[in-house]
Structures are given as structure tokens and as C-alpha cells.
Protein: Ribulokinase
Amino acid sequence: MDVTVDGTDNYVIGVDYGTLSGRAVVVRVRDGKELGSGVFDYPHAVVTDALPADVAGVAGDGGARLPGEWALQVPNDYRDVLRHAVPAAIADAGINPAAVVGIATDFTACTMVPVKADGTPLNELPGFASRPHAYVKLWRHHAAQPQADRINALAAERGEAWLPRYGGLISSEWEFAKGLQLLEEDPEAYAAMDHWVEAADWIVWQLCGQYVRNACTAGYKGIYQDGRYPSEDFLAALNPEFKDFVSTKLEHTIGRLGDAAGYLTAEAAGWTGLPEGIAVAVGNVDAHVTAPAAKAVEPGQLVAIMGTSTCHVMNGSELREVPGMCGVVDGGIVDGLWGYEAGQSGVGDIFGWFTKNGVPPEYHQAAAAAGLGLHEYLTELASRQAIGEHGLIALDWHSGNRSVLVDHELSGVVVGQTLATKPEDTYRALLEATAFGTRTIVDAFRDSGVPVKEFIVAGGLLKNKLLMQIYADITGLPLSTIGSTQGPALGSAIHAAVAAGKYADIREAAAAMGSEPGDVYTPIPENVAAYEELFQEYRTLHDYFGRGANDVMHRLKAIQRRSAAASRAGAAAVSAAPATVGASA
Structure:
């Protein structure tokens, strides 16, 4: 393919939308060299407590507190990434914007935006800014678990053919559960919504003016299998008002990964500083675009994108039913292969939670004195321990369990703490717990006839060398890290090059533009043996709390919800009561 224009290098832009920020990378088409980058932090971050006053139009904190398990975002923050991060990346690269031939984006998933027919988000309409259901529901919005439970029970009862494609369970994070929650909790907002859109597709719509639904999220998050969605009969059995959800809110033209969804509009060219009319690739998911960036486009190469959460993606040559997987989609990663997905809802988030809430001041002071961040300091202390020395086993469910249990009512556990337990002990136990969770996923694939031959890590956590060695030892797999620090953005850039016609397909583009390995970790036999003993203890706890032997976590969640509802009701009654005027002496 011709990867230059008149013999001059040309470039593509990859934009990676994460949980807290968006990152743009300028990539040279002929060899994948990353020349410049820009980052923009979302001004409103993740909305979990109350709607922000500056967008909700409500004085004070934005209104009533949100219930537990909610996670919202403000869609205009995504536009601001285009306005700020893309121009910053071009300036950092020092290139002529006229040499850019395409742009592609990837997004967290399942992240949903309720919009009007022209793509305007509901929260930007008069009368809707103060309504929580008018905002983006981020991937980690888990408040639709009751709806997911009903979907799963009904699908199992009816023997729906699509259910095994998702490991037997649909997640509360996905399109149908979140859509049903919207209908049942705010029917007016549901009625006002014309399209229930993945953020991955909404941002492409903003760039090119065309709404094209990407094949990746349609398959993995939208229960689109073998050319169709769940039937109207199934949806009506969930709720009669949900019968036409697919036909009126969800269904739309589906674009193949690597194709052009359209071309950059004049408005978007103004935001980004890029030439009007360049190719805009069909949207994609942050994890799935990373596989080509890591040159992992063949069966058996498991790619883990490790950050606040972890998503595991892998190609397979055959269709298999894997219990607890997030999904298997024909061509979900690259054409001609079955794309498998699994994941863990909390990984880096768990480590961050612990350092924020579980470490005493003297550790912060010691880390600062050593010139280290707190994570680095705890890692250094933990690395001095022999395997099992801390006497702990943890379950990595602080944000629920995505795979293989698919249950966001589950919660974290640490077993074995004593008065002698130190912060570095718990920290290492949490690192190991996430690796045990990944081992559980690897075993599920292998036991179902999907071979896992190597383990490739992308994302921010690859910088922790202790963590990487722990993963190699616990999984027993050779582990390599992607050489790029911007794996998803590079993967998007690869898709942009294909959409611009510079390569025939994703495989060809990945071979030329993909990143070479960074660090390589080999399992240490004595460590593998030591961790095998601990993994058996993890698996015992995993099954005891996660497979119904003891439902204490579910009961605690129910008690928590009742107590929180009573507390909110009491607070509302107090605020509504007339003020009492005391008698003067």
C-alpha cells in the first residue's frame, strides 16, 4: 500500500477515551512511530455523588445525592478532548496538520449516551440537566444489577440461544440492563431519547456527522449475534414498555472495524485543527483496539489492558462457549477470527483505594523522604517478602466481579489479617488477588477449549515490575509488555490508517505499525509452585462467596441499600420541615 503522499510521510491520529481522561497520539503511517501526544483530563471526572452544579443548572452541589453504584459522566467533556488533546498532540509532534490522513477513536465500554435524533445528549436539553438519567452512564455504573438479574433469569428460563455467547450471564454494565433501568426509573427521559448510543459511536458521530454503530460494542455489549438482537417477545416479557427497545432506540447501521464511518466535518476540523474531509474510522473499544497495537492478531495471544480495571481480549480460530466470559464475537477484534473478551472490574482502582484509605501517615512521609510515590514505596517493601510471608489471601471484588462470576453485588475480602499485618502485606495481597483473578479467567478459557499460549500486557500498570512478575508466576505464562505507553491510542491510529486506505486490513497495518515488546517476564518455577498452593486457597474462597455457598455479600448490599434509602428519606424530611422559631427570654 502507498503509505505516503507524494513521497512525503503522512500521519494518523489515535484518540483513546479512558475513565478519567482522553489521550491523543500522532502516529507515522509507514512504521507506527509515535511522534507526539496530548492529554486532557475530564473536568467533571466520574460523577458518583451528585450532579455537578455547573452542568445541572442547580445551585449548590447539583441537587440530591445519587444512589450507590452510580457512575455518570458529562458528554461535553468528551468533545473537549478533541478541542484540547488533539491540537496539543499535533503541536507536540511538530508536524503539518495537512499531512494527517485519518483519525480514529476508542472508548471505555459499555458507556452509554441517551441522545436525540441529531445526536444531542439529553442532559443538554432544557428541562433535563438536573435529571441523572439524562447523563452518560459510564462502564462502571453498576446500579442496573437488578435489571441484569432479570434479563439473566428470563434468558436462562427461555433457553435463549445468545446467552452462552456471553458465558451464561449478561452484565449490569451492558446496554440492555442500563436501558431497562432508564425506562423503569425515568420513563419520561426514556421516551424523550431517540437513540441509546455507545459513547464509542457518539464521539465518531461528533467527528463525521454520521451515526454508525460499531460491530465491536454491538456484539460484546449489545447482544447482537448472528445478525440479530434479542426478540421483541423476550423484551416484552421483561417489561411491556421495553418491547420496541431495539427497533426504536438501539438498532442502527453497523460498521465493520477498520472501515471509514465518514469524513471529518468542518466543525470537527475547527475543534481539532485537522483537515476537513479526512477519514474517520468506525468506533471501537479501548481493549480491542490494543490487540493490533501489540501485534496480537493470531489465536492464543491473550492481551490484558491493565489500568483502573482490566479487559482481557484474545482471538480464537473456533467458536467455544466459555463460562463467565464477557462475550465472543465473529470478527470482534480482526476479521476471520472469533474475538473473545473477559475482564476484571477492579484492578488499579483497588490499589488506588487502598493507598488512599488504608495507609497511615508515616508511610506517606517515608515515601516522600525516599523520593518515591506511595505505590512505588509499597511495591518496594512488598518485593522484599517471600511468597506467602504476609499470611493473607484477598478476593479482588471491590468493584464486583466481571469474569467469571459476572456479579457486581460481590465485594472485597482479605483473609488472614492480624495485629501484626502491615500495609505492605495487604498491598501485596491485593496485587496477588488481581493476578489470581486473571488466572481464573485463563483457566476458564483453557478448560473450554480456547488455548492461551502467551500473555501480553498493555496499560498503565505494566510499569510495576513486581506486579508483572507476580502475573507471570501465577498464570504460569510467558509475559511481555507492549513497547508503547499508549497502546489503545496506537491501536486506534492503526485503524485510522486502514480507514484512510493506507493498508488493506488490520493485520497488514498491525505488522507495519504495531509496537514491539517492551519487557519480558518468564515464570520462575519455584514461584509458580508457591503460588499454586495459594491459588487453591483463593479458589476455595472464590467459590464459597461467589457461587452461592454463602450469599453474605448480597445480603450486606441489600441491608446497605435499605439503610441508605432510610437515611436519604430522613434527610429529605428534615430539609422539608418548617423551621422552628424559639421563644425569646
The CA atoms of residues 454 and 477 lie 6 Å apart. The chain is about 40% helix and 20% strand. The first strand starts at residue 4 and ends at 5. The radius of gyration is 24 Å.
